[in-house]
Amino acid sequence: MDMKKYQGVFPALYACYDENGEVSCERVKAFTQYLIDKGVHGLYVGGSSGECIYQSVEDRKKTLEACMEVAKGKIVIIAHVACNNTKDSQELAAHAQSLGVDAIASIPPIYFRLPEHAIAKYWNDISAAAPDTDFIIYNIPQLAGVSLTISLLREMKKNPRVIGVKNSSMPVQDIQMFKDEDVIVFNGPDEQFISGLAMGACGGIGGTYAAMPELFLKMRELFLEGKMEEARVIQNDVCRIIYKMCSTKGNMYAVIKEIIRTQGGPDIGSVRAPLAPLTEGDLPICKEAAEMIAEAIKKYC
How many CA atoms lie within 13 A of 100 on its CB side? Predict the structure, then answer.
């Protein structure tokens, strides 16, 4: 297996809706091309940033199909396929493999607190539906309510398709612990991108990357050149931008979609209820965040 292809900056693809709040394949294609043109190394499709838990199986299939129509053979695509039941997850996994994605990923089942052997069976059943496709565990305990343990990871490593972890837990120590189990690890929290790289992450998958891919690409470039202080300065500015984006009443992804429009990028709609759309009072904050991004790109890139 070619593990080198999983290195770099992987924006999480946002849900793309039309004016009626339905998935727009044309907007998915435009957004995918927009990110390819920015020079990202891959995309993570159908995850938290893609509003997966508020979409139907058909919505998620349409999104991945549109993305792959543009991206296949150009960049690496990881498709998050987890639903809160095994049957739908397997359907999405098989569909993703049929489209030729590089890997599938899955959070653990949410709501009911399952024992580790049941989580392992859930993941292995999903992997079995896409037997020729790499599998990545998505560890996001603050939302899923379940933390990936070393014992569970070791159990999952018995499956030869399991290659790594998308780690969105906050302690960077977790990256080191998972790396010691001889798997690849993606850094999840955007606020600690260079910290994750320093602990051995192969790259990052992030929910704010698409608003400012230039800054994450530059941080990685500086990190690889050993210019840690310069990378740290950019990281601190990126954190301040994220704090600004999180200061609105509307959901952060609604903010980012507005910022992308402000930057001259594609219109990919708003967010799906129950996520909160932007309020009138949020617009000046969106503008300020967009200006912060523009200034940082001009300064560092």
Answer: 11
**Predicted confidence (pLDDT) per residue in 44-77, tens digit:** 999 999 999 999 999 999 999 999 999 999 999 9
Domain-located, residue 3 = no
Q: Answer whether residue 145 shows pLDDT above 90.
A: no
Tens-place pLDDT, residues 236-276: 999 999 999 999 999 999 999 999 999 999 999 999 999 99
CA 103/CA 1 separation, integer angstroms? 11
Residue among 145, 202, 150 nearest 177 (CA): 150
Q: Considering only CA atoms, which of 171, 22, 122, 145 is closest in space to residue 137?
A: 122
Supply the range of the domain harboring residue 291: 8-300
Has residue 23 been placed in a domain? yes
Q: Say if CB 296 and CB 212 are below 8 A apart.
A: yes
Question: Which helix (H) or strand (E) is 61 found in, with range?
Answer: helix 57-71
- The CATH number of whichever domain residue 30 belongs to comes to 3.20.20.70
d(CA 61, CA 128) in angstroms, rounded, equals 19
Task: For residue 1, name the pLDDT band (cuts at 50, 70, 90).
Answer: low
Q: How far apart are CA 96 and CA 64, in angstroms?
A: 8
The alpha-carbon radius of gyration of the chain (Å, integer) is: 18
From the number of C-beta atoms within 10 Å of its C-beta (0-12, 13-18, 19+), residue 1 rates as exposed
In a domain, 274, yes or no: yes
Lowest mean pLDDT among 14-23, 114-123, 141-150, 213-222: 141-150
In a domain, 100, yes or no: yes
On average, the pLDDT of the chain sits at: 97
* Token duo for residue 89: 């997850």
Split into its structural domains, the chain has a count of: 1
Catalytic annotation, residues:
138, 166
